[in-house]
Amino acid sequence: MAEFWETAFNDKKEMWGMNPAKSAELTKDFFLKKSLKNILIPGIGYGRNAQPFIDNGINVNGIEISKTAIALAKKHYGSKMTIYHGSVSEMPFEDKKYDGIFCYALIHLLDREKRNKLIQDCYNQLAKNGFMVFTAITKQAPNFAKGKLIEKDCYEFHKGVKIFYYDQESVKAEFNNFGLFEVNKVIEDQPMFLIKCKK
């Protein structure tokens, strides 16, 4: 997986452009409403989804596996945020607790064990009364049930990339024990769930 993303960033640089995802804007509004000051973004990429938070005075730390993406983030944002190099499966990178965690379009790329670990690790890094927001691809996505079946609701459509497609039941099954309180639908380039939890 790490090699896939390194190649992707090398080939396409800022492959999703510089505009933040709709989910990042919605989460920024939610975090501002809750007066959050320090957030973590696992899988931060080259930082486009950090921009709305930085622009509104929220301190951002990130985790990213691709050195190329980190270099791009430094080019665009300089020292405005701290990014730890490594896999989200190696969390935590520090003892710091965060008011908020925003995890965009990452959870569905992991197998069941790593999904469970990521959710638990994010929850552990939340301060008391902190919030974590995940986006996850849904079964309404055009590629659902296409490609090689890996396990229930998980398919490999592109070589090396296995995607788990969520429905309401699987969201509840994985997030219910971590303060799940709201699930909304949001359309990005794919239909997604915006999943909110409170510690």
Word description of this protein:
- The protein is of the alpha/beta class and 199 residues long.
- 31% of the residues lie in helices and 32% in strands.
- Strands 3-2-1-4-5-10-9 form a seven-stranded mixed β-sheet, sandwiched between helices.
Question: How are the secondary structure elements laid out?
Answer:
Layout: H1 2-12, H2 22-33, E1 38-42, H3 51-55, E2 59-64, H4 67-77, E3 81-85, E4 98-103, H5 112-125, E5 126-137, E6 148-151, E7 154-158, E8 161-164, H6 168-175, E9 180-187, E10 191-198
Parallel strand pairs: 1-2, 1-4, 2-3, 4-5
Antiparallel strand pairs: 5-10, 6-7, 7-8, 9-10
Keywords:
alpha/beta; 10 strands; seven-stranded mixed β-sheet; 199 residues
How much of the residues is beta strand, in percent?
Answer: 25-35%
The radius of gyration over CA amounts to 16 Å
- The assigned structural class equals alpha/beta
Morphology: globular
Determine the N-to-C terminus distance: 30 Å
Read across the widest sheet, the strand sequence of neighbours is: 3-2-1-4-5-10-9
Low-confidence stretches are: 1-12
Compose a concise summary of this entry.
With 199 residues, the protein is an alpha/beta fold.
